[in-house]
């Protein structure tokens, strides 16, 4: 892939800590997604960008600093990744719930896990010793994923685990459901 093509698959912009930056971030994303012809879930993407940019602005950007919105279009246009990076301390500590009915401070973590579709194929393998060993390895991996997911959920983390082609819509759907339920 040539350099010009690679650059067209990545767009990012820095925003200062000011209220008008959130609508500007939405417009930046709208333009990029439209230019790329990836508008099938534009409303969902814009909602996520609004929420993430607002959270970065309110909770992660110290005075005098800003945040970055980064868009990555998967080669072939099969997926879109949206990142919002604030310039806060990033110390990794989860926020503490302040008010159960408040507008902020819930500290919910949402984790996306990409399931390898080849594992399902391996798990169904039979017929030769090699296929049976592959099936056992696949089942062990599946068990480890279930154990990790259960541990994370036990810590209050929301986990979305899906194959690559289903992850983006599943993650957006989970986010919207959490938002509708008042958990974000």
Question: Key terms for this structure?
Answer:
single chain, 184 residues, alpha+beta, Heat Shock Protein 90, 2 domains, three-stranded antiparallel beta sheet, two-stranded parallel sheet, 6 helices, disordered N terminus
Structural account:
Strand 2 (66-73) and strand 3 form a beta hairpin. This protein has six helices and five strands; from the N terminus they run H-E-H-H-E-E-E-H-H-E-H. The protein is elongated, with a radius of gyration of 20 Å. The chain has helices at residues 3-8, 21-36, 42-60, 117-123, 129-154, 164-180, and strands at 10-16, 66-73, 80-86, 110-114, 158-162. With 184 residues, the protein is of the alpha+beta class. Strands 1-2-3 form a three-stranded antiparallel β-sheet. The protein has a two-stranded parallel ribbon with strand order 4-5. Residues 1-7 and 92-100 have low confidence and may be disordered. Helix 2 runs antiparallel to helix 3 (42-60) and helix 4 (117-123) packs across helix 5. The N and C termini lie far apart (39 Å). The protein folds into two domains: 3-113 and 159-180, Heat Shock Protein 90; 114-149.
Could you give a short description of this structure?
The chain is an alpha+beta fold and 184 residues long.
Number of strands: 5
Q: Low-confidence runs (pLDDT<50, min 5 residues)?
A: 1-7, 92-100
CATH architecture of the largest domain: 2-Layer Sandwich
Beta strand %:
15-25%
